Amino acid sequence: GESVGLHLPTLSVQEGDNSIINCAYSNSASDYFIWYKQESGKGPQFIIDIRSNMDKRQGQRVTVLLNKTVKHLSLQIAATQPGDSAVYFCAEAASGYSTLTFGKGTMLLVSP
Amino acid sequence: GAGVSQSPSNKVTEKGKDVELRCDPISGHTALYWYRQSLGQGLEFLIYFQGNSAPDKSGLPSDRFSAERTGGSVSTLTIQRTQQEDSAVYLCASRPIAGGTTGELFFGEGSRLTVL
Questions:
Q1: Straight-line distance from the first to the last Cα atom of chain B, in angstroms, rounded to the nearest whole number
Q2: Which whole number is the average pLDDT over B2-20?
Q3: Residues ≥6 apart with Cβ < 8 Å to A90
Q4: How far apart, in Å, are the Cα atoms of A36 and each of A27, A93, B3, B54?
Q5: Residue B73, helix vs strand vs coil
Q6: Which of B35, B91, B103 sits opposite A97 (nearest CB)?
Q7: Residue A1 confidence (pLDDT) above 50
Q8: Is B57 at the interface with chain A, CB within 8 A?
Q9: Separation between Cα atoms, residue B52 and residue B35, nearest integer Å
Q10: A56 CB contacts (<8 Å, ≥6 apart)?
Q11: CB neighbourhood size of B110 (10 A)
């Protein structure tokens, strides 16, 4: 079936480095792609989203890139901080957001 | 508080018992979702409510699972005859259909269910 998955289960970086978290999706009908951050013991928190008619979107210290040709999504975090340590999920949705399909997540570990 | 509230935060039950999990969405949010998260796994969609429309129950894993949303606000997820494989964190999220950031679901902190 259609699915969203992640390439790397764990990413370890040093404070101040730039981090890149990758995600592959398989549903070509998806219209929105979203990144969530989940800290231990908490619910996921929205970071940024991108629509399928875009290939890049920037937020505060984060950039999401979408490559529809290879069905690949990435989240770039600039100047990674210890507070960025969390599990990051990509998700996809069809137009209207009736449901979001989440990937399994990548754990980001930031060392001081 | 202004966030999504879930209760109980932790529930330990014996196999075969029924459990009810409650979700209070953010006031004014018309869409409400239930997801399940098993240890080290992603989020598994269970059910979606939108206003007065019929809920999307396509994610419910078996007929032991059901959910209601009364008055377009509070929702209750019921699991009957619980099994050990039901052990997970059950997450509720809400979203305003009108306004808000596209794609942004507001999640509660979840109800951790342990079935012994």
A1: 33
A2: 97
A3: A4, A6, A21, A23, A25, A33, A34, A35, A36, A73, A75, A102, A103
A4: 19, 13, 17, 27
A5: coil
A6: B103
A7: no
A8: no
A9: 20
A10: A50, A63, A64, A65, A66
A11: 25
Residue B15 clears pLDDT 60, i.e. is over it? yes
- Segment of A96-105, B46-55, B101-110 carrying the highest mean pLDDT: B46-55
Nearest CA in chain B to A100: B45
Instruction: Measure the CA–CA gap between A21 and A10, rounded to whole angstroms.
Output: 9
Cβ separation of A41 and B105 shorter than 8 Å? no
Burial level of A13, CB count in 10 A (0-12/13-18/19+)? middle
Decide if pLDDT at B83 tops 60: yes
Contact B46, B65 (CB under 8 A): yes
- Closest C-alpha among A68, A53, A54, A57 to residue A35: A57
Q: How far is Cα A30 from Cα A45, in angstroms, rounded to an integer?
A: 21
